[in-house]
């Protein structure tokens, strides 16, 4: 016992020593774990700071990318709108020509933006140069005064030349700017249209999403397929069992309880239970006859076939009424065959479509004819179809008459050019040459004009001869000489008093037509000399 106790004591001591060693080792491990934990926490904090910095950087990059994407989408939409406005259609993705046109439009849009920036830069430079030139002029005027007039004039000429060049460049830039503004307006209109198209596409996309969400999922579809296979298997089993059934009792096992109750009630109502007293051969013959009439191979299908026939027979009166009304609408004189009904209805449908187009054409024609002047169309009120046809006939007749008259003039011109030796053609060409008539259409108006002029001259000569008491057969030269002598013998007339050319009354603040014209000519010369575009630019240019 003592030996065992000693051994146990030794083991206990050894275990205590091991426990102390393990506790010391655990303390050391715990300290090392704490140190590692603190290091890991520091690393985690550093990593968190780095991750936050990276997130900020990523947010900035995402914003830049989003801005760039928005800018690209805006440019693409503008290019599409410009293409749609030019080509009157949407660009096709698979068409190389459309893609090339889109690239060219994008290139021109980039050039337009660059030109706009250059225009703004040149404007600033022109303003700075004008300020510098004005400062140099003032400085030279203060330094030299009136001693170096020749150099000052040369310097002024150089400055004026430079100013004219700058104004020419600025004028060109203003023209380019106006063109660019017009393009910008067009692009803005196209952008609005593209936004509308985008909204329509978004609505269509939302509708498609809703349609997709309303459809069954793959899981539901597979479950439905499994259920369908199960039902088909059950149905095949029921059919096999019914085919193997040999008597009525076995068939009744595969019929539902509600159906059996309904059948029993119907049998009792119609007193069909007495059919069981009929001989078997008679029943078999009757059933065979029914199957032959219905062309059935299965006795169980007699009931469904008869129900279908009953529903068809019930619908026959309505069908007869519809067919009778349709035949009456199609033909009132005689009975139309049924084979002609469908083609006749199809022809009516085509005629209705053509009728709509014809009505639209007639309305447009009447609207166009109603815009005629009231002096041409004397009839007031709306234009009827009969009146519209009459107006169109009149226009056609007028056009044919006009064309015939123009063809006649053209034939006369061609005849005069091809046969210039004929006397009539020579007379006409000579008349045109004398009076400066360029076309054949102006010959008759010129003849009328000459006739009126000659009549007026003859009337004037007759008045002069009667006033001077001359004979009616005296020549024109003698008549004019007599008129000259008569005017010389008449005493000198009093000098005409010049009237004041005022518009309304004699007022200093009211200028006459001559004064206004003179002032306008002076302002026009000043604008030309000063190189100004408008009257408002004259005063600033005189102050330089």
UniProtKB/TrEMBL annotation:
The entry's keywords: Coiled coil, Cytoplasm, Cytoskeleton, TPR repeat
Keyword Cytoplasm: yes or no? yes
Instruction: Please give the biological process terms from Gene Ontology that the record holds.
Output: cilium assembly; regulation of microtubule cytoskeleton organization
In which compartments does the protein localize?
Answer: Cytoplasm, Cytoskeleton, Microtubule organizing center, Centrosome
Which segment of the chain is annotated as a signal peptide? none
Instruction: List each coiled-coil range.
Output: 5-64, 184-211
Q: Where mainly located?
A: cytoplasm
Can you list the GO cellular component terms from the UniProt entry? Answer: centrosome
Record's keyword annotation contains Ubl conjugation: no
Share what the entry says about its subunit structure, partners included: Directly interacts with tubulin-gamma; this interaction determines centrosomal localization.
The task this protein performs is described as: Plays a role in the organization of both preexisting and nascent microtubules in interphase cells. During mitosis, required for the organization and orientation of the mitotic spindle.
Protein name, UniProt field: Centrosomal protein of 70 kDa
Organism per entry: Aphanomyces stellatus
Gene encoding it? Aste57867_7718
